[in-house]
Design a protein that fits this description.
Number of strands: 10
Number of helices: 14
Structural class: alpha+beta
Strand content: 15-25%
Helix content: 40-55%
Radius of gyration: 30 Å
Number of domains: 3
């Protein structure tokens, strides 16, 4: 068999050894290293304790400079370098359990007159009281069911194939997403009662105050009622009160929507074995943590970057 020897790139001549890791061209006597070393000094080890103090201990970047010999600019530079390195690493999410529950919520903010929405998702096993936050996704414009559909379609197959139910607030069109995937839907009680309590009125002179108070009490009872007979009676009273002339137009609309989707609000009673959360308060808690950290951001890119870091450093929340 004919042996083909490598030739030099400069003269295409025979290559001879010139020490341990160097080679030499036999024609022009040029030498080179077989495995070239990286030029310049060796990179210093990345310091991640800045990220830990900011995202877990509650410090600000300026507070870190007060206890350091470095300037604020140097601390910011090292912090941003460590933040970029941590976000470039691939995140591996492992969630145990054969059946999972998906919780949705979104927050929005204006930047330079444009509305940006941050879509946040978390996953919880029916056998666990701990929810794991997934990486948030930033989109231009207001919250919509079409964007939520894209977020759900982009879920890892190992998570999406195990989801059996979805918990959300009053997102328009989210029921079509659950129907397409064959999931159950549980509507948030907190958002419903919050809207009604705002219109209940605190003063005795509020027009239709007794009607508003009665509606709030009946809705609260209907959310927890286990007797079918009493539930039908409460729904009948709500339908009559919604037609009352002193019932505000917006409250009438909320009551009718509640009666139309009452099965979605009471899914946790129909399927007690799934332990469905009745609220999205775990997402509200995660959003409050995020808002405290991003108070000073001034661009959507920075907002998304900090949201990713907050999510990865504090990804576990209790969800009962």
């Amino acid at each position: 068999m004919k042996i083909l020897q490598e030739k030099s790139q400069c003269c295409a001549a025979k290559i001879i050894r010139f020490g341990g890791k160097r080679r030499q061209c036999s024609a022009c006597r040029k030498t080179w290293r077989v495995h070239p070393a990286k030029r310049g000094r060796k990179a210093k080890r990345r310091q991640n304790h800045y990220l830990t103090k900011v995202f877990r201990s509650g410090f600000t970047v300026k507070q870190l400079a007060c206890h350091s010999r470095l300037s604020v600019a140097a601390i910011y530079k090292r912090f941003n370098r460590g933040l970029t390195d941590s976000l470039n690493r691939r995140r591996v999410i492992r969630i145990k359990g054969k059946k999972l529950i998906l919780l949705l919520d979104a927050i929005w903010q204006y930047f330079s007159g444009e509305l940006w929405t941050l879509y946040r998702l978390s996953v919880k096993s029916i056998d666990s009281f701990q929810a794991t936050l997934l990486d948030p996704v930033l989109r231009l414009g207001k919250e919509s069911a079409s964007n939520w559909r894209e977020m759900i379609d982009e879920l890892p197959p190992g998570i999406k194939n195990r989801v059996i139910a979805l918990v959300s607030d009053g997102i328009k069109g989210i029921e079509t997403v659950t129907e397409d995937n064959g999931w159950l839907i549980q509507r948030c009680h907190f958002h419903l009662l919050g809207l009604l309590y705002k219109m209940r009125g605190k003063r005795a002179a509020t027009p239709g105050r007794l009607v508003r108070e009665k509606i709030c009490c009946l809705v609260k009872l209907a959310l927890r009622e286990t007797s079918a007979r009493r539930l039908n009676n409460q729904c009948g009273q709500l339908a009559k009160l919604a037609k009352h002339p002193k019932c505000p137009k917006r409250m009438r609309k909320i009551v009718r929507d509640f009666l139309r989707r009452i099965e979605e609000f009471r899914a946790y009673l129909e399927y007690p074995e799934l332990r469905l959360p009745t609220t999205t308060n775990v997402m509200e808690s995660a959003n409050s943590v995020l808002r405290r950290k991003v108070k000073t951001v001034n661009s959507p890119q920075s907002w998304h970057k900090w949201a990713l870091a907050v999510t990865r450093f504090k990804s576990k929340f209790t969800c009962e």
